[in-house]
DNA sequence: TAGTGGTCTAGACCACTAG
DNA sequence: TAGTGGTCTAGACCACTAT
């Protein structure tokens, strides 16, 4: 008896064998029902299995195609280089993508004073619920939604600065923090991966079978104080992260 | 008309609302078909949707449960500290998990001389296809499969060392490389996330809806030569990665 | 308009678990 | 043995695309 697994396995093998390139139209469901002598739902389940693996994608009214793999953008440590954002620099993300020949833009979703969520409070070193300033923004690369990023700041550091406004000015919020007397010294990045919630899936227009990377960045001043915590949710198929460090003692 | 999306949305809301804790048994499919007045397959599709999000999991003969989220293991840079593996140390992974109060073990899947795959050759700085030594191993944490890790070495560095054997001895392969005249200096880690292939899914016994993290580690000697490339595939729900670094100039 | 996939039904048979 | 989910069928109706 032919089952959906077998059909999925054979389709997977032919795709991975290179017979169908990115965006190539696969045999239609009704073709396959005839070829295997099974019901339509059985073939569909095979396709759904591959979709959950991120291998294929259905296009309304056309059929199933091999899902194109976007070339991922590299997030290296050098994107934080002081020389890029001090002086006349641009915000980090925009500057960094421009260097890679990609267009990028961002939209502010919210600017507000909110109680610090627990993971943020912990990293800022304040009691949970302490009022903090949040900038919630959505960034786009080549007009595809790329990440949802929420940056949290202690209130005293953003008081009277352009961090509270939509446009933070040349060099972005890093430059504004330094103008406000904070010398930025160190970055901590924590990375995890998971499947998106349904809200994120819509907001990032993720095809089924695309995980997200959760990046939590904590920025420290020279005194060791945490001055910013950014929580970002990033489409995994558009990103790789790159770190270099000496072997610790 | 009640569709599978609506049923999925309502189930998701009650789960996220905390009504059902980890491993709690959800209402059965036949309960829900009665409650919503729909066919069995419709309810099943709702559950399948949530399974792909990693929220629920079916248990044969029992029903659908809320999927427990394993507490992830933290991979910090300090796991590479020289003091941990020089002298009488243990291999890095085993030592590191022991510090976190977890049992770990590893099984060697293959020890062989193979042509370097392209990504490995590129990082080792050799032409693709150059013969290299590979150690393929599977690691387990608390007896759950945790990662598939393949380490590649230039042949001249493993000649006559215990890196070619199943047991590399105290301090693991890092210690053996240093004995062989390489002073280890720097680590590069590249991280990406994706859905597992079907092979990985079986090998790591991943529940549906669990992504994997691809970690590519390159180890450099003091002269700048790449002396090891490790390609690891890790269950994402068991891992977070943690980096700290000074803001570059 | 013909062909594509998306959703849903009502019922069948299976393997597995629990009492 | 009764209840659970897993798979499959044959057919229905829908929205969408291409021509």
Characterization of this structure:
The structure is a homodimer of 249-residue chains. The first copy, chain A, has 249 residues and is α+β, with helices and mostly antiparallel strands. The first copy, chain A, is 29% helix and 34% strand. Chain A is built from nine helices and ten strands. Chain A has a six-stranded antiparallel sheet. In chain A, strand 1 and strand 2 form a beta hairpin. In chain A, helix 1 packs across helix 3. The longest helix of chain A has 13 residues. The radius of gyration of chain A is 23 Å and the shape is elongated. The model of chain A has no long low-confidence stretch (mean pLDDT 92). Strand 10 of chain A pairs antiparallel with strand 7 of chain B, so a sheet runs across the interface. Chain A binds a DNA duplex (19 and 19 nucleotides) through helix 3.
In the sheet with the most strands of chain A, the strands line up as: 4-5-6-9-8-7
**Largest sheet entry of chain A:** 6 strands, antiparallel
As a percent range, the share of helical residues of chain A equals: 25-40%
Q: What's the SSE pattern of chain A?
A: HHHEEEHHEHEEHHEHEEE
């Amino acid at each position: 008896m032919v089952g959906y697994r077998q059909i999925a396995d054979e389709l997977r093998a032919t795709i991975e064998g290179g017979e169908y390139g990115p965006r190539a139209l696969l045999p239609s469901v009704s073709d396959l029902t005839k070829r295997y002598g099974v019901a339509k739902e059985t073939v569909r389940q095979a396709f759904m299995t591959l979709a959950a693996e991120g291998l294929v994608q259905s296009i309304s009214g056309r059929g199933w195609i091999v899902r194109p793999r976007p070339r991922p953008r590299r997030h290296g440590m050098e994107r934080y280089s002081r020389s890029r954002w001090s002086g006349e620099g641009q915000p980090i993300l925009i500057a960094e993508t421009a260097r890679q020949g990609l267009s990028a833009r961002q939209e502010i979703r919210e600017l507000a004073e909110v109680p610090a969520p627990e993971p943020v409070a912990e990293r800022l070193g304040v009691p949970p619920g302490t009022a903090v300033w949040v900038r919630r923004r959505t960034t786009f690369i080549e007009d595809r939604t790329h990440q949802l990023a929420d940056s949290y700041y202690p209130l005293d550091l953003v008081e009277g600065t352009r961090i509270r406004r939509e446009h933070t000015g040349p060099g972005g919020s890093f430059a504004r923090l330094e103008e406000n007397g904070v010398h930025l010294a160190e970055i901590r990045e924590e990375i995890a991966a998971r499947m998106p919630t349904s809200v994120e899936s819509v907001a990032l227009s993720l095809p089924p079978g695309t995980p997200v990377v959760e990046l939590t960045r904590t920025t420290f001043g020279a005194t060791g104080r945490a001055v910013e915590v950014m929580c970002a949710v990033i489409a995994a198929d558009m990103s790789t992260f790159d770190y270099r460090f000496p072997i610790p003692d």
